[in-house]
Amino acid sequence: xxxxxxxxxxxxxxxxxxxxxxxxxxxxxxxxxxxxxxxxxxxxxxxxxxxxxxxxxxxxxxxxxxxxxxxxxxxxxxxxxxxxxxxxxxxxxxxxxxxxxxxxxxxxxxxxxxxxxxxxxxxxxxxxxxxxxxxxxxxxxxxxxxxxxxxxxxxxxxxxxxxxxxxxxxxxxxxxxxxxxxxxxxxxxxxxxxxxxxxxxxxxxxxxxxxxxxxxxxxxxxxxxxxxxxxxxxxxxxxxxxxxxxxxxxxxxxxxxxxxxxxxxxxxxxxxxxxxxxxxxxxxxxxxxxxxxxxxxxxxxxxxxxxxxxxxxxxxxxxxxxxxxxxxxxxxxxxxxxxxxxxxxxxxxxxxxxxxxxxxxxxxxxxxxxxxxxxxxxxxxxxxxxxxxxxxxxxxxxxx
Length: 400
Ligand code: 7TS
Prior knowledge:
Layout lengths: L8 H5 L4 E2 L10 H14 L9 H20 L8 E4 L2 H16 L5 E5 L8 H10 L2 E5 L9 H7 L4 E7 L11 H10 L3 E5 L18 E5 L10 E5 L1 H6 L10 E4 L4 E3 L13 H17 L1 H20 L4 E3 L10 E6 L4 H10 L2 E2 L1 E3 L4 H7 L4 E5 L6 H17 L2
Parallel strand pairs: 1-13, 3-4, 3-5, 5-6, 6-7
Antiparallel strand pairs: 2-8, 7-8, 9-10, 11-12, 12-15, 14-15
Helix pairs in contact: 2-9, 3-9, 4-5, 10-13, 11-13
Bound molecules: ligand 7TS.
Ligand 7TS binds next to helix 4.
């Protein structure tokens, strides 16, 4: 254990719980809950608007939160860190605002067969609307992006390449430097879905060759309702806004309007200051542990769970070897539907997700309807793996 379970009030309130669904959402440390409460108790006002001291303080808290998050992800120009509701909104922002201004009939958008629906459906919708072609890269037998096929799919008509940094359903850590290098050769926009990477891997976005990087705060100890889109400054400045209204304008004439500077141009309406403050506290907490240590802890648990599950007859673990996966173990047990398995695991207070994990195109490619998925984070220990194994063995007894 690299953190004290008592640091997490939900886990302290449920001492018997084995929470193995952090890929869906993480639990929150006291430091994050305190930061949220502190903001609302001491500094809450609508920022950017009031001439009074309290509003200025709310503005400052919001600014400081952005600076803290930017530092955590290795972004020096904090104005290119846009706060959104989460990964889904971040990716819809790019596909809509950049997409409708830049993608036309005959263009090609390349994505992969392992994307979460949030990095699949917005591109599919864009392609259908403008008459572009959506090209979906296949996977290898062990659940990696087929790089040869990716290379073959990216061509002179490709103007967007969008891929996940880490798969939510398999845990595969993708070679994003190689993928973006292939996309750069044809001048395509590079969009990376980092929802499953930002919580688990050391991240240095200034040194990644991507145009957009998206993630959610709630999967990395922060509150639900606040996520991030990082964009290249020149692209954000050139593209049209996503939503319009308050805060994002410079001047509104009767006939037309001009836009505020970054990041405000992409943050229409009253911002979610409280949750941004909470996310900054989460970044502080994770930096206090060190992301290399987070990664190492998860790698150990993932390897152990994969090995112990694979030793059980009838169990199949999906994806590449554990060393190339983040803290995700996706598996099936012969003769037991993943939903039934999850129900029996729940009787032993083991929380896992069962289903298609918002990755139906991936499930089709694996030719299975669903998997059970255990996902680890900093508060998990080998005792959680023990409980998982006990539960799977119990399920095998129940189902004969
Ligand atoms: N992209 C990936 C890779 C994800 O894992 C998720 C959420 C999203 C995008 C969407 O994030 P949101 O915060 O906007 O919802 N993944 C999961 C999951 O695996 N189980 O529940 C949510």
